[in-house]
């Protein structure tokens, strides 16, 4: 599958692109995971937005967060793949590209993430290591993980 990958600053996103981002995040994080939480957390404006498009449909997305916003380290968050595109490799490609962009954009050597616990093995396969005990975030078990360049 060939997706069109685009990296943009918040202010570069069109209204339609931002709507697609919020729609995909809500589809998975609120509806599918049955989790009521405040998605609009004021981190989007400072972040980079990495989007995977299949024609006009957003199917994969991450928010790439500068150091000092979520953690002292740079971070990748709101990692989401459309349910219809799972098991296609889109999620792995999304994270591989996001990692590369994070290291390049912020000239950093460490990335820290807050990962849903059930995705621990996936993130370990990308080189992340667990760096915290399990904790609950919005009722979902999470762990912090780090990746060194």
The fold-level CATH name is: Aminopeptidase
Give the termini separation. 28 Å
Let me know the CATH homologous superfamily.
Gcn5-related N-acetyltransferase (GNAT)
Task: Pick out the low-confidence regions.
Answer: none
From the alpha carbons, calculate the radius of gyration and give it in angstroms: 14 Å
Shape descriptor: globular
Number of strands: 8
Q: How would you spell out the order of helices and strands?
A: EHEEEHEHEEE
What composes the largest sheet?
8 strands, mixed
Count every helix, treating DSSP H or I runs of 4 or more residues as helices.
Answer: 3
Query: Per CATH, which architecture?
Result: 3-Layer(aba) Sandwich
Strand content: 25-35%
Structural class: alpha+beta
Give the total of domains: 1
The helical percent reads 25-40%
What's the CATH C level?
Alpha Beta
Summarize the structure.
The longest helix has 18 residues, at 15-32.
Question: How do the helices and strands line up, and which of them pair or pack?
Answer:
Blueprint lengths: L3 E6 L5 H18 L15 E7 L2 E9 L8 E8 L8 H17 L3 E7 L3 H6 L3 E2 L4 E3 L2 E9 L1
Parallel strand pairs: 4-5
Antiparallel strand pairs: 1-2, 2-3, 3-4, 5-8, 6-8, 7-8
Structural notes for this entry:
Helices cover 28% and strands 34% of the residues. The chain has 149 residues and is of the alpha+beta class. It has one domain (4-108): 3-Layer(aba) Sandwich (Aminopeptidase). Strands 1, 2, 3, 4, 5, 6, 7 and 8 form an 8-stranded mixed β-sheet that branches. The longest helix has 18 residues, at 15-32. The protein is globular.
